[in-house]
Amino acid sequence: MSDTKEDRLEGWKEIAVYLHIDRSTAKRWRAQGMPVLSVPNTKRGRVFASRREIDAWMRQRTLDCNAASTDQKDDPVGALTSKGDGVLTRRRLIWMFGTGVAIAGATVWFATRRWSPHAAEFRGRMIIALDANGDQLWTYELQREVVPAQVGRSGQHRIVLADLDGTGRKSILAWARYSVSNAGGDETELVCLDWRGKPRWRLRATPPLLDHDGNAFEDGWAINDLLVRDSGGTPAIWMAVHHYTRFASCLLRINPSGKSLVQFWPRGFVDRICTFVRDGHPMLALSGIDNSLDRPFLAVIDAYGPPVCAPLGNPDKPRYAFANAPSALAQEYVLLPDTEINKFYRYPYFEPRDVAYHDPVLEVTSNQGPAEDPNFYFEFTPSLKALKVRPNSAYASIHDEAYRQGILDHPFLRCPERLRGMGLLRWSANSTWENDVIPMAE
Q: What distance in Å separates the CA atoms of residue 205 and residue 82, rounded to the nearest whole number?
């Protein structure tokens, strides 16, 4: 038996806690063959065990139960025949059948709970799966070294666990960035591993987009955001990607088998995704930058609907369109406002930092300048009706500093945005742009 400090379990309490069972069950399993040894020369019957040997015994127990179940299916009577007279009473048959099902079920439940990942992380080029206690379950080695993650940058490493098959066993979805010396930027892929660490599929972040002139884009794509829905409907994965050197981006929808399609075709970047339910139907909220009109956008689309394109942009900027984009347009689409704080930081527009659903409000946060907290919180209904915008606590002082420097011609108390609200552009049901206003909260 292995006797390293990390591997050793001391006493029935540690053994029971490790197995997620009570002490009496642990003692009964020992009588059935679980490798537990007594400490020599002790009067109170102290015991110890090896984690690895117990894990191996549990795996074999699961295999034996599955084999016994198969044998019983082949010869259900012979497998349960008594050695005495070859006849089983009805009570004994029912008892033995029920006990076998209970043992097999408990063993399968334990194995699923014990060896199905509860978390995962990157360590160098390795993906490490962890159990509920933070102990290592297995490792998977990527084919290449990943680029070290940089805090605050898009396209960073991320791992999501999801039940893609409805079995309760979590698959691992990991996006990884690799350095590519002969490309404009790093290469990114999404790796899907099953609960045992076996590869299910791999998907490079290379969408089938054609530039406005009909040519394919060169390599150099990154993942901006990843969203998984594995409950309350058909499992699906959504992945926002962008090109490193070109103004191109899209939203991919991926099924559990790794097959993808382009679901949203923007005229700029898709940065963030969130999901919510409206009238019993799954929807997606998307935020990003509309480069054709130089404004941030917020869109709502059907989570499982057909592909749609962003509404018509500036005809003088054809480069922000795709030659193979669908003709259907997103009907719920809002361009967020230019703000006076843009002038202070000398930015053409702010960047949406996040989009989230806090029932019943959709919230988009914006960030500019060195502040860690968002500058604005824009609130909408699930159908994109404007509710209010809340500035952060520093906004008034930043505004007045811009006034003192002569960047703005009025202090915060006389700011038109504060008094009359901020201007929005909304794509209407008549396929035209309409002006709208979102009031500023006091």
A: 61
Instruction: Tell me if 297 is assigned to some domain.
Output: no
| pLDDT digits 0-9 by tens, 232-278 | 778 999 999 999 888 899 999 999 999 999 999 999 999 999 999 99
Digit-coded pLDDT (tens) for 175-209: 888 876 555 557 789 999 999 999 999 999 899 99
Say which residue the tokens 């400090």 belong to. 5
Per-residue pLDDT band at 343 (split at 50, 70, 90): confident
CA 168/CA 113 separation, integer angstroms: 9
Residue 393 within any structural domain of the chain: no
In tens, the pLDDT along 390-407 reads 998 888 888 898 899 998
φ, ψ at 377 (rounded to 5°): -120, 105
pTM score of the predicted model = 0.73
Q: Same domain for 198 and 53?
A: no
Rounded Cα gap, residues 320 and 329, in angstroms: 15
Residue type, position 412, single letter: F
Are 155 and 94 members of one domain?
no
Contact status, residue 132 vs residue 116, Cβ threshold 8 Å = no
Residue 232: CATH number of its domain: 2.40.128
In a domain, 437, yes or no: no
The total number of structural domains that make up the chain: 2
Q: What are phi and psi of 347, to 5 degrees?
A: -105, 145
Angle at 84 between CA 82 and CA 86, to 5 degrees: 50
Which of 155, 112, 120, 154 is closest to 136 using CA atoms? 120
Host domain of residue 222: 117-275
Same structural domain, 161 and 104:
no
Amino acid at 270: V
Query: Strand, helix or coil at 128?
Result: strand
Same domain membership, residue 225 and residue 124: yes
